[in-house]
């Protein structure tokens, strides 16, 4: 483990990992006493991931936890009583008893977006939060987590691609705990490092030991700093292990014994204690003090939660649908002058020419444009530069499509275009073909080429 942090930072990380584990231990007891009404998931052995990554965020930053990120909530400032009450569906809980697990957030103060059960959906949502923050000039970073299983959803790819193309200040922590329910990671992803998925979106990534809290923190801090400085989204794969089953109901007998033994010997709290003791940052006395502090805090928090009432029965029918202002006022919170963030100042002029897309092989064997606007010749560049900002360069979408279609046989089509219309489009485009150009001009086809589809008549003849 590296030694660059301050004494206080080391001790904070230790405290939050111990608190994370103690909160979950207490919830297991409550579950066995039948006081927890919803599903109970565990992050046993994964505390370094939630704590180390969330600790890299600033107060103004945003996070959205998944089921194994209670540690991140604690670091962000959620009191343990809220977590207990939420799982016990108590009236004083953040959702007033309407949810039995961890579906709650705090948009006003702590900047926490509620978990979304559909795996991966938080990625585009948090990308949106990140972009909104940038739009408002807040210099925030948004962070969320996804499992190895969740990284195979469609929305993971859509979301990360969107974040990448928008250069969103967004950090995604991919928690590779080796299992998704009973499916080992090797049976659902054919690559060794899930961090490699970042290559598909052209974004940077890291692969880090998820049981080493200092490594997780330093990596997350670097990623958060880079994202905040405008480098765009970053993916961090943390390699760790889900020590218990998917939830309380799952004994996880499918996990090989040797695998479990390997990871149990690498318990993140144990590893960190060894490091802190070696660095003389922790001794038996300070360890005991930490334990007592947590015990005292949690017994008070649990008592509060246990004493909180269940919601009144009639509350079940309230707050189901938003009824407008008598439910809650939806008022935009402008943090910059309205004029600065509304069009025309905030709008961006449409771009019709995109350079640098290269070219591909055409059907005739030669080089052909593969994207509208990508094959400017030198003299044409000058020409189109003159036409820049002129309305004449604006080509309606339907026409642009036809231009691409017509590009296969430029010379013929160009001859059919009325000269007035042709003058309106940049010279590099073969022609501004009429909308029905495809129907009028037959595509260039070698006479000897066999028809792709056998006409029904000859098919019958051939007895097929
Ligand atoms: C889109 C979607 N598919 C399936 C599920 C059901 N489901 C919930 S958790 C889970 C396993 C998730 O595994 P992983 O992403 O590796 O996270 P872990 O449980 O290991 O933290 C599944 C399949 C879901 N919630 N959303
Ligand atoms: Mg997993």
Oligomer: single chain
Shape: globular
Uncertain segments of ≥5 residues (pLDDT<50)? 346-360, 368-378, 384-464
The average pLDDT value, as a whole number, equals: 80
Which strand order spans the largest sheet, edge to edge or round the barrel? 1-2-3-7-6
CA-based gyration radius? 29 Å
Order of helices and strands: HHEHHHEHEEEEHEHHHHEEHHHHHH
The percentage helix is 40-55%
Helix/sheet category? alpha/beta
Written description of the protein model:
The protein is α/β, with parallel strands linked by helices and 464 residues long. Helix content is 40%, strand content 8%. The protein contains 17 helices and nine strands. The strands form three sheets. The protein has a five-stranded parallel beta sheet, with helices on both faces. It has a two-stranded antiparallel sheet with strand order 4-5. The longest helix is centred in the first third of the chain and has 26 residues, at 7-32. The radius of gyration is 29 Å and the shape is globular. The termini are far apart. Mean pLDDT is 80; it is low at 346-360, 368-378 and 384-464. The structure holds thiamine diphosphate and magnesium ion. Residues 68, 117-119, 147-150, 153, 175, 177, 179-181, 242, 246 line the site of thiamine diphosphate.
């Amino acid at each position: 483990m590296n030694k660059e942090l301050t004494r206080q930072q080391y001790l904070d990380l230790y405290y939050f990992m111990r608190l994370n584990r103690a909160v979950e231990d207490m919830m297991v007891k409550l579950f066995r006493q039948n006081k927890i009404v919803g599903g109970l998931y565990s992050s046993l052995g994964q505390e370094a991931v939630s704590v180390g990554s969330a600790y890299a965020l600033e107060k103004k930053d945003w996070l959205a936890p998944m089921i194994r990120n209670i540690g991140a909530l604690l670091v962000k400032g959620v009191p343990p009583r809220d977590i207990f009450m939420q799982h016990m569906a108590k009236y004083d809980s953040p959702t007033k008893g309407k949810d039995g697990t961890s579906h709650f957030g705090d948009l006003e103060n702590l900047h926490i977006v509620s978990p979304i059960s559909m795996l991966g959906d938080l990625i585009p949502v948090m990308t949106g939060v990140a972009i909104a923050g940038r739009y408002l000039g807040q210099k925030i970073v948004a962070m969320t987590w996804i499992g190895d299983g969740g990284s195979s959803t469609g929305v993971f790819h859509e979301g990360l691609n969107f974040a990448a193309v928008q250069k969103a200040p967004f950090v995604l922590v991919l928690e590779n705990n080796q299992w998704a329910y009973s499916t080992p990671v090797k049976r659902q992803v054919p690559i060794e490092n899930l961090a490699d998925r970042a290559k598909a979106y052209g974004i940077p990534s890291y692969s880090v030991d998820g049981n080493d809290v200092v490594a997780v923190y330093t990596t997350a801090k670097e990623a958060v700093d880079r994202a905040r400085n405008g480098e765009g989204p970053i993916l961090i794969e943390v390699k760790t292990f889900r020590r218990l089953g998917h939830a309380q109901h799952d004994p996880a007998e499918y996990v090989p014994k040797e695998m479990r033994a390997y990871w149990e010997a690498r318990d993140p709290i144990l590893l960190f204690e060894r490091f802190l003791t070696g660095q003389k940052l922790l001794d038996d006395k300070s360890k005991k003090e930490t334990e007592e502090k947590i015990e005292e805090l949690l017994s008070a928090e649990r008592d509060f939660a246990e004493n909180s009432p269940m919601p009144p029965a009639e509350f079940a029918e309230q707050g189901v649908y938003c009824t407008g202002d008598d439910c809650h006022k939806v008022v935009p919170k402008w943090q910059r002058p309205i004029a600065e963030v509304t069009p025309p100042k905030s709008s961006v002029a449409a771009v019709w020419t995109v350079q640098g897309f290269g070219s591909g092989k055409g059907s005739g064997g030669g080089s052909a444009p593969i994207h509208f606007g990508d094959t400017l010749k030198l003299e044409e560049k000058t020409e189109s530069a003159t036409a820049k900002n002129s309305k004449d360069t604006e080509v309606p979408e339907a026409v642009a499509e036809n231009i691409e279609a017509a590009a296969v046989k430029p010379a013929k089509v160009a001859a059919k275009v009325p000269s007035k219309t042709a003058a309106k489009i940049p010279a590099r485009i073969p022609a501004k073909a009429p909308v029905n150009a495809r129907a009028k001009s037959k595509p260039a086809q070698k006479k000897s080429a066999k028809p792709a589809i056998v006409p029904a008549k000859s098919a019958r003849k051939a007895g097929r």
